[in-house]
Amino acid sequence: MKGRKSHHYKKRIPIFKRKIFFFSIFSFLFFYFAFLFLFIFPTFALKKIEIFGTERIKKEKIEILIQPAKNLLFLNSEKLKEKIKKEIPEIESVKIEKKFPDTLRIIIVERKEVFEICSKECYFLDKKGVVFSLAKNPSNLPILEIKGEVKIGQKILEEKILEKIFEVLENLKNLNQIPQKIIIFSKNEIKVLTEENFFIIFDLEKDLKWQFQKLKYTLEKEIPPEKRKNLDYIDLRFEIFVNYKFRQ
Asked: Mind listing the pLDDT tens digit of every residue in the chain (248 residues)?
C-alpha cells in the first residue's frame, strides 16, 4: 500500500494580528492628528503681527501684504521679505522673526533721502542710489538733474558715484561755493551750478583733490569775486590746465 502524501497547511494569521496592520493604523492616526494639529486646530494660526521701525510708512501697508498668510509654521519668510521690499520701495531692509506659536515680528529700516533727483519730475534718492518716492514738497536737499526716465524702485546711480558727488559738495563748501544743483550729463561728469550763477565741471573718474587744487588757484588768482559776474563756467576736466569762459 502506497504511503499517503502528507500536506502541511500554513495557519493563516488574522489581519488584525499582523504587524503591518498595526503599523498602518498607527501611521494613519499619526498623520490624521498631525493634519488636525497643523491645519485645523489654531495652534500655529497667525494671530498677532508686530511691526517695528516705521516712521513715515503706515503699518497698514505692510499688514495688507501679510494678511493672506494664515499659518505661522508654513509662512515663507524670504518670499514675504522680498514681497514687502518690492511693493514698498521706501523700505531699505526687512527682518522677519517668527515668535511661536502665533506671533510674527517684522523689523524694517526705511530709506533716508540724501538727494532730490529730477528729470520730468523730482524724486527722493537714498545713499545707495535707489529712487524710492516722489518729492512732493520742496526740501533742502541737494538737487541732481539727470536726462532720461526715472522710475520709483530704480537704482539709478552707483554708490561710488554718489560718494564722489558728496566729496565734491563738501570741498565746494570749503571754498565758500554754495551749490544750487548738480547736473549729471555723462556717466562720470557733472556740472555744479553755484550760488554765483556759474558752473563748475568735474570729472569724477579723475583725481578730485587735484581738480580742487586747480579750482582754488583759479578762483583766488585768476577769477576773483569782482570778475565773476559774467562767468559762465570753469572746466576742471583737463589734466594740465583749467578752461573757463565768460558770457558775452
From this structure: 455 555 555 555 555 455 665 566 556 545 544 554 555 546 678 889 999 999 999 999 999 998 876 788 788 999 999 999 999 999 999 999 999 888 999 999 999 999 999 998 999 999 999 999 999 888 899 999 999 899 999 999 999 999 999 999 999 999 999 999 999 999 899 999 999 999 999 999 999 999 999 999 999 999 999 999 999 999 999 998 999 999 98
Is 190 in the same domain as 169? yes
Between the CA of residue 140 and those of 10, 157, 175, what are the distances in Å?
Answer: 96, 20, 20
Cell for 153?
524702485
Q: pTM score > 0.85 for this model?
A: no
The Cα 97–Cα 90 span in angstroms is 21
Specify whether 50 is located in the same domain as 102.
yes
Helix axes 59-66, 77-87, angle to 10 degrees: 140
With respect to residue 10, please indicate whether it lies within any of the assigned structural domains: no
Please give the single-letter amino acid code of residue 230: N
Query: Do 125 and 102 belong to one domain?
Result: no
- Residue identified by cell 511693493 is 87
- Give the structural domain span for 144: 112-156
Burial class (CB in 10 A: 0-12, 13-18, 19+), 122: buried
* Domain co-membership, 90 together with 103: yes
**Dist CA 109 CA 6 (whole Å):** 87
Give the HSE-up count for residue 122: Cα atoms under 13 Å, Cβ half-sphere: 14
- Cβ partners under 8 Å of residue 51, min gap 6: 59, 62, 63, 106, 108
Give phi and psi for 63, each to the nearest 5.
-60, -35
